[in-house]
Amino acid sequence: MKPTTDNERQARAEYVESDNAFTLYSRSDMADPDPDHRDGPATAERRSFSKGRSLPLQRVIETEVIPRLVLAQRVLDNPVHEPVQPHPAAPTPEDVEAFAALARLGNTDNAITFIDAFCARGLPITQVYLGLLAPAARLLGVCWEDDVCDFTEVTIGLRCLHAVCHALEPRFAPVGQAARSGRRILLAPAPGEQHGFGLTMVEQFFRRGGWETWIDGGTDRDALLAMVAEKHFSLIGFSLGGETHIESLASLIRDVRRVSRNANLGILVGGPLLLQEPLLVKRLGADATARDAEEAVLQAEALLALQGRGSERLPG
């Protein structure tokens, strides 16, 4: 594994998605980490734990309170983050459906023209990614599951989205943009899964945020562990698409922590399954999750602030 290059990103634009699990997340309002009360009414105790399993107060503060405060403050301080209010030009569900249908035809130029119309109306590029590209990819997955589209149509659609993502890259995360010190992340799917388009999107958000990004295709567990033991990564981000691979990912995370050159390594997990079951973070042995690529960068910054830059683990 090595840092992704322009040629590798172009190659990924030609990648054929082999399954229907996507690592694309829904838009969230980060000014308030729980604006729609997804976690239920605000109470003194957000979770119930049986006796003997209750978390010490310090651990609750470290894992629940501080990260939320850090994330909220970073939204206020970060000029790159887009306004949380819906943009007047934001794509509608009908727009997403039309764009997905266009992608299934495989004409990248027409798809980019469709996007340019939204940009001309003032839609920020981040909302193009989160409000159009990501939902279109999810819709392709739903069409496959519901037998609305056949394998060929979905494959052509995903290849088109890859090509669009690559074409938009100079606008979104310019090549050659210097990474900020101490920010290096490895992105990988859960063992047995492949998420080409989702990881491509997440990578671009991290590079836009000043991170040096590495991507592992998920084909060789031993190679990933060797890389983590050899190189100092600030964080590793794993995507999880389905329940089948929960235990294998939990096992991999344990091994990653054991061999990591960074003794304070942070681990992010994301994917549609985490949206439905956020408490899987604890079961997987990770530090945090995110509901979309933009929030993933904010979570990564929060973990970096909480854990420091990480210390080197001596060989042996």
Mean pLDDT across the residues is 75
CATH topology-level name of the largest domain: Rossmann fold
User: How many domains in all?
Assistant: 2
Largest sheet: 5 strands, parallel
The residue fraction in helices comes out at: 40-55%
For the biggest β-sheet, the strand order reads: 2-1-3-4-5
Number of strands: 5
Q: What structural class is derived from the secondary structure elements?
A: alpha/beta
Our estimate of the beta-strand percent is 5-15%
Q: What labels would you give this structure?
A:
single chain; 316 residues; alpha/beta; Methyltransferase, Methionine Synthase (B12-binding Domains), Chain A, domain 1; Rossmann fold; 2 domains; five-stranded parallel beta sheet; 50% helix; globular
What does this structure look like?
By secondary structure, the chain is α/β, with parallel strands linked by helices. It folds into 2 domains: 6-15 and 82-172, Methyltransferase, Methionine Synthase (B12-binding Domains), Chain A, domain 1 (Orthogonal Bundle), CATH 1.10.1240; 57-78 and 176-307, Cobalamin-binding domain (Rossmann fold, 3-Layer(aba) Sandwich), CATH 3.40.50.280. The chain has helices at 6-13, 57-77, 93-104, 108-120, 125-145, 151-172, 196-208, 221-230, 246-259, 272-276, 280-284, 293-307; strands at residues 184-189, 212-215, 235-239, 266-270, 288-290. Strands 2-1-3-4-5 form a 5-stranded parallel β-sheet. Strand 3 (235-239), helix 9 (246-259) and strand 4 (266-270) form a beta-alpha-beta unit. It is globular. The two termini are 22 Å apart. Mean pLDDT is 75; it is low at 9-83.
